[in-house]
Design goal:
single chain; 14 helices; 20% strand; seven-stranded mixed β-sheet; alpha+beta; Spore Coat Polysaccharide Biosynthesis Protein SpsA, Chain A
Length: 418
């Protein structure tokens, strides 16, 4: 598009602040901004802005609790049958893992990609990427294989992550089995619908959430690479869970035996208002409702035994068949908005530091993909074995809580081997 056409588009979609900035900058800066705008779908951005006003309404009457498999209640024969089905996939080199690491450690007070964050675990401190590498290496050694490992980065942190992994020799993982790919981005929008311009005259964007993993795998050639390798099953997890079971043979076996294209591990809530997405059935299909969107009467609902009716929670430990990922990659997942505080350039090219949230970022959530499938297998995990996330600097889900869970888990594993 020509510059005149882009200016007309900005006028059409009421981007008055950016138009005023363009009138005040030099020719080179103006050209750079225009080039950035040319890559943005302003019509889609307007639709997102209009949807900000919409509130999410969930009809509790349509919801039912999900059923999950509790490994503790399986017979030894049942457990082994599931495990062996999963192990068979591994030994036939039909399995790969994806770690989502597009975010930064902002909430941790850490300036850098989360995967490069080091925690003081026993017997020595480890980086989060190192913990993931160790996890996959254990499976490689146990089953005599080498699992393809893909890492999803973002435009903001890709170079830093690639350089970090190179500097640390990929923590002993074979380089030829590791692939990097970037997730997408979406522009931020202010409360009055304006694009956010940063101090470098760039349109401020943010990574578009973990749900973008499917389209990113398709667009960046990862799906084709997996097909060429004969991959049939892919485990997708988050970098910040230090107890993440990257190679979950039980979950894999359950999916195969139940004929599911997706399987997920859950944990049961400790208390009704715990800030975790809730797994439930809507129209007999598995759905996850974010903690911020759960209706009051659903939070407190109990079954006939006085237990939480909707306590099964999503912890982003998900397994997908490659066919499922291909299907999802062609679908449009819904956007979720987050109200955040961002510095911005005003129409006089002056930087403003807001004291309150002033703009919205938009994300896809990976669990929204569940709604495209009639059946999903759910295996109930244990917090002390499966879920030790690092999201906050202090308090719940912090390095302190994750370190304790990690150390306790491995102490128990060692004692059981004696």
């Amino acid at each position: 598009m020509k510059e005149e056409e882009i200016i007309k588009d900005l006028e059409k979609y009421n981007q008055t602040r950016l138009i005023n900035i363009l009138n005040k900058v030099d020719k080179n800066t103006k050209k750079e901004i225009i080039n950035e705008v040319s890559e943005i779908n302003l019509k889609e951005l307007e639709r997102l802005y209009e949807n900000i006003k919409n509130t999410v309404e969930v009809d509790v009457g349509e919801l039912k609790p999900v059923k999950s498999i509790n490994p503790d209640k399986l017979t030894k024969e049942e457990y082994n049958e599931f495990e062996n089905a999963g192990i068979d996939v591994l030994k036939n080199n039909k399995f790969a893992v994806v770690i989502m690491s597009g975010g930064e450690g902002t909430r941790l007070g850490y300036n850098g990609p989360k995967g490069t964050f080091k925690i003081d675990v026993e017997p020595r401190p480890k980086y989060l990427f190192e913990i993931m590498a160790d996890s996959i290496q254990r499976a490689n050694k146990k089953y005599g294989i080498t699992i393809p490992w893909y890492i999803m980065t973002s435009n903001k942190n890709n170079d830093e992550i690639v350089n970090f992994m190179e500097e640390h020799n990929y923590f002993g993982y074979p380089k030829e089995y590791i692939g990097f790919f970037k997730q997408g981005e979406l522009p931020l929008i202010t409360e009055d619908g304006q694009l956010v311009i940063d101090e470098n005259y760039k349109i401020r964007k943010a990574a578009d959430g973990n749900g973008s993993v499917f389209k990113s795998m398709r667009d960046r050639g990862v799906l084709e690479d997996m097909k060429e390798k004969g991959i049939e099953w892919v485990y997708i997890g988050q970098i910040d869970n230090v107890l993440l079971k990257m190679v979950d043979t039980l979950l894999l076996g359950v999916a195969i035996k139940e004929g599911s294209e997706i399987a997920t591990r859950s944990v049961f809530k400790d208390f009704p208002r715990e800030r975790m997405g809730t797994l439930c059935l809507k129209n007999e299909m598995v759905k996850v409702i974010e903690y911020s969107e759960i209706p009051e009467d659903m939070i407190e609902a109990k079954n006939e035994n006085g237990e939480m009716l909707f306590g099964e929670s999503n912890i982003t430990c998900n397994l997908f068949s490659l066919k499922a990922i291909e299907k999802i990659s062609l679908k449009d997942l819904p956007y979720h908005k987050a109200h955040k505080k961002y510095s911005y350039m005003d129409e006089n090219c002056k930087m403003i530091e807001p004291v309150e949230p002033n703009a919205y970022k938009f994300e896809y959530f990976i669990f929204d993909s569940f709604e495209f499938f009639n059946q999903i297998s759910i295996v109930r995990g244990k917090r002390e074995e499966d879920f030790a996330p690092i999201k906050n600097k202090e308090g719940v889900q912090s390095p302190e809580t994750a370190i304790k869970l990690y150390n306790d888990y491995w102490k128990k594993q060692k004692s059981e081997m004696i």
